[in-house]
Specification:
Number of strands: 30
Helix content: 25-40%
Shape: globular
Number of helices: 9
Length: 556
């Protein structure tokens, strides 16, 4: 009866919350992208407008585009795609645009169904005189590099355009290779149309990032294009063969400047450094690990060119660095390199600790001078291990309550998002209370005389919860196991008891997910289980004479 009554009350509440959330989030999102941001006057390029819902009728308001662009054509498609096991549906409009003028132009925000796309900046360059002088030819090359001189290991953007005015087939461009240089393609070959002095022409375009490996003169060889011109009056004709070769490009490459310090050579258009901490400075305590994540972002450098972070040793802190993560992103503008490195830091003594400034030298290719990316000095007060802190639940409640107070005082727009967040919190609390009630209810319904759950069974429950990656159940079962097995219930004590930094980091991530409104989607329950099982095995191995202190690990 109690079960039925509770379920009957819970069902309409959940339905109401879900209905409200659906209403708030009913509007889709409109996003805009282009296939090129560097355009020559009279070129055509594509603008993609994507609405993340199916649209039966209507279209975006395109009148805002007509100030600086001609809309040559437009198409609409409704698409369904499977991504990571989930089906995604959306409506996409593909617009063919041509700029009316040169310079830096803004594709304005486009409106549909009350939603607006983001603005996009494009650069429209004037047509070179070299191209204008060759429009009488059936085929011709136009080659550009963004720098006539540069430094070793610095990025050079090479743009190759092949213009044509006749129909052809079997078109082939030679493979792009440069001696003593590393070459990275910037996308696939692009094909589009342009208009030169009233004559319609087609264009093949390809772009590469080139990194000279030696100083001196870098020679980019002339590329070759071959095709067969189609005979429109004789379909059986094999066509007339044609071959065009571009002129080679020569670039002066200088060595590292003498003024550059003894450090990894980083020539870039822009380089930045940032960091984030797993705990606020007020939460540092002796013996409790804190994770510092440092990120380097560089324009014009690959991730592999970015050096690993060397930290200055500080008295009172022990460092446990993780492997560096190097990644790249490419677009038509070049290479963007990323490096991310996490370091576990364990305070070994209380009091004030100063983490010194971090300076990463780099060479600014735009200003041709030395600069530094800097993380400033940071001073932290570390609490002693014996310091009596506020009750954990009180702290958690304070953290949960703080956002609603500050948001009410400072937020003046976007009320729908705060309503949604509040409803999500309400829904989470309802589900949590229901799950805990079900767990207690099942415990009450057990027949008298049932043998209490063993420590091995509790550990089995922990493993199962970790495999399902359920943070709420993981914490509950882990707390029950540690209370029964070790006589402790605080998560921060469990890592210390088992003497495992890796486990402490996993437990900190678990606490962040549950109580700090963390958006860290990288929480991995399986990793927590691996760290826990390894810590248990290590403890059992190191204490062969005290097996009673820790039950054998359940491994089935």
């Amino acid at each position: 009866m109690v079960n039925q009554f509770t379920t009957s009350m819970l069902r309409p509440i959940l339905a109401l919350v879900l209905l409200l959330l659906t209403q708030i989030a009913s509007a889709g999102t409109l996003t805009a992208t282009v296939d090129r941001k560097q355009i020559t006057e009279n070129d055509s390029f594509r603008l993609f407008l994507r609405y993340d819902e199916q649209v039966g009728y209507g279209q975006p308001d395109l009148t805002v585009l007509k100030k600086d662009f001609r809309v040559l054509s437009q198409q609409r498609s409704n698409q369904f795609r499977s991504m990571n096991g989930k089906t995604v549906s959306f409506t996409e409009w593909t617009l063919m645009l041509s700029p009316i003028k040169t310079g830096t132009l803004i594709i304005p925000a486009v409106e549909f169904d009350g939603q607006f796309s983001q603005e996009i900046q494009v650069t429209v360059n004037e047509l070179s005189q070299t191209v204008k002088d060759q429009i009488a030819k059936e085929f011709f090359f136009d080659i550009e590099v963004d720098r006539s001189s540069t430094y070793v290991q610095a990025q050079i953007i090479y743009t190759e355009k092949l213009y044509y005015s006749v129909n052809h087939e079997d078109a082939t461009l030679s493979e792009f290779k440069v001696t003593d240089a590393h070459v990275i393609p910037l996308g696939e070959v692009r094909q589009y149309n342009t208009n030169i002095n009233g004559q319609r022409m087609g264009v093949y375009e390809r772009r590469f990032a080139i990194f000279a490996e030696e100083s001196g003169e870098l020679v980019i060889p002339g590329q070759k294009f071959t095709a067969n011109i189609v005979n429109s009056y004789n379909r059986w004709s094999r066509g007339r063969p044609v071959s065009v070769v571009a002129q080679p490009i020569r670039i002066k490459v200088e060595s590292t400047p003498s003024t550059y310090p003894q450090a990894p050579w980083l020539p870039s258009q822009q380089l930045t450094i940032s960091d984030r901490w797993s705990k606020s400075y007020s939460e540092w305590q002796v013996g409790e690990p804190v994770t510092r994540t440092i990120t380097l972002n560089a324009r014009g450098l690959s991730g592999s060119q970015l050096p690993s972070i060397d930290l200055t040793q500080v008295d009172g802190l022990k460092y446990y660095p993780d492997q560096s993560d190097h990644n790249d992103k490419t677009d038509t503008q070049g290479i963007y390199g990323f490096l991310q490195q996490s370091i576990a830091i364990v305070p070994t003594q209380g009091g004030r600790v100063t983490i010194p400034e971090m300076r990463i030298p780099w060479w600014n290719l735009e200003t041709n001078q030395l600069e530094y990316a800097i993380l400033p000095t940071q001073t932290i007060t570390v609490a002693a291990a014996s310091t009596v802190l506020k009750d954990k639940n009180t702290i958690e409640n304070d953290k949960a309550a703080a956002p609603s107070i500050s948001s009410a005082a400072t937020t003046h727009s976007g009320d729908g998002y705060w309503i949604a967040a509040t409803l999500l919190l309400l829904l989470t609390n309802i589900i949590t209370a229901f799950l805990l009630w079900r767990r207690q209810d099942k415990a009450i319904d057990k027949t008298p005389g049932t043998v209490p759950t063993s420590s091995k069974d509790k550990l089995r429950q922990v493993k199962k919860a970790c495999q399902k990656n359920d943070p709420l159940i993981i914490r509950q079962t882990l707390k029950e196991w540690s209370q029964q097995e070790l006589g402790i219930s605080a998560m921060d004590q469990l890592g210390q008891q088992l003497n495992s930094i890796a486990l402490s980091n996993s437990l900190n991530e678990l606490e962040s997910v549950l109580y700090q409104n963390s958006e860290n989607s990288a929480f991995n329950g399986q990793m927590l289980w691996n760290n826990l099982s390894q810590a248990i095995k290590k403890m059992q191995t190191s204490r062969p004479t005290n097996q009673a202190e820790l039950s054998p690990l359940y491994t089935k």
